[in-house]
Amino acid sequence: MSSFLNSLPAILPTVHVWAEKQEALILESGDPLTGSELADARRAGVAQPEKIRVLRVDTLPLPDNEDIRFVAKQIGLFSHRVAGITLGYGICLSREFHQDRLTLVHECVHVSQYEKKGGLLPFLTDYLRECIAPGYPFGALEQEALLVSRDVCRGTS
Q: Which pTM does this prediction carry?
């Protein structure tokens, strides 16, 4: 995994451009959160939940760049167990999870993390680094999303 960590600075600009394009597509085509989803997003820590849009898709979008797609798959970002991807205020959910509250709240926690880190690039830098070491899903950002989403859905947040 250290080779992936060493390659991160080189691929990050391309990942960032792809993420910005995907966020724009999601924001343009996605649906706003419903009233109860807005409340959940607030409980998940999102400062501006009204900006969130959710796009339900058959399959999650993969990066166009073959090298980035390879790295993403190797670190587990596009495995069968991944139900959604969050890019800024854009959330993309696999159709089989589009009604799953826990998954949506989990992705809202990532939106909150984007807000706190100051945008796409700072979040992607930290998140991808954590996906490499200690590995997905063991990084602090992913663990926070898992824990907070469980608490919100249990009503204890």
A: 0.93
